[in-house]
Amino acid sequence: MKIVVTGGAGFIGSNFVRMMVSEQSDVEVVTYDALTYAGNLANLTGIILSAHDRGILWNDPALGIDWPITKPVLSDKDRLHPLLADAQV
């Protein structure tokens, strides 16, 4: 099963990812996170496989490209779990 989790490096998202990985033997989880004040890759320590860790820093000034991600491509995904939200909302 393939799952996309937005906000996966935040408190709720990372715990959801941990739950899915521990309860499902055939799960592949892809997380997207803005990594602002609430998102932290350390929340995913122990469940990220370094062989599959592919980070892309969107809107990186060094790249000089502003790529919009308002409509992500979600083909072949079994579920979408939109946990991405500003905690100050």
Automatic annotation (TrEMBL):
- Name under which the protein is recorded: NAD(P)-binding domain-containing protein
Q: Which Pfam families match?
A: dTDP_sugar_isom, GDP_Man_Dehyd
- Leader sequence segment: none
Occurrences of domain NAD(P)-binding (ranges): 5-45
Q: Which SUPFAM superfamilies does the record associate with it?
A: NAD(P)-binding Rossmann-fold domains (SSF51735), RmlC-like cupins (SSF51182)
So which domain of life are we looking at? Bacteria
Please give one Gene Ontology molecular function term for this protein. Answer: dTDP-4-dehydrorhamnose 3,5-epimerase activity
